[in-house]
Amino acid sequence: MKLEDYKDVFEPFDRLVEIEILGIKVKVPENNTLLRCFQFLSIETVSLGDFCWNGDCANCRVWLESTSKDKPVLSCRTTVKEGMKIVKMADEISLKPSGDDKSEVVLDDYRAVPSDSIF
Ligand code: FES
What we know:
Layout: E1 16-21, E2 24-29, H1 34-41, H2 43-47, E3 61-64, E4 71-74, E5 85-89, H3 101-112
Parallel strand pairs: 1-5
Antiparallel strand pairs: 1-2, 3-4, 3-5
């Protein structure tokens, strides 16, 4: 399974934005929901995960850092913004590169290429 096989599922984007997931900084495509961003990072586990993608299941819930209380949101309904900090995630969200060297290289390549040549 390769990221390029899924290029049509992402909203058009010109650049990657930086967010933080459980303390780890990552770059993900702007103009996309957080769940799509998770898919960008971990194409296999999120594509095959148990998600309705339409707001019904709540399996995609994450908690965003907030000045008062961390704010729960549905990642399939929340558009990514630069600097977002996700401090907690539902157990159903698994972000793991497939483990083979090739998939990690592909992901790194997508992060490195000029924005106008992504997809
Ligand atoms: S994927 Fe089901 S509510 Fe977001």
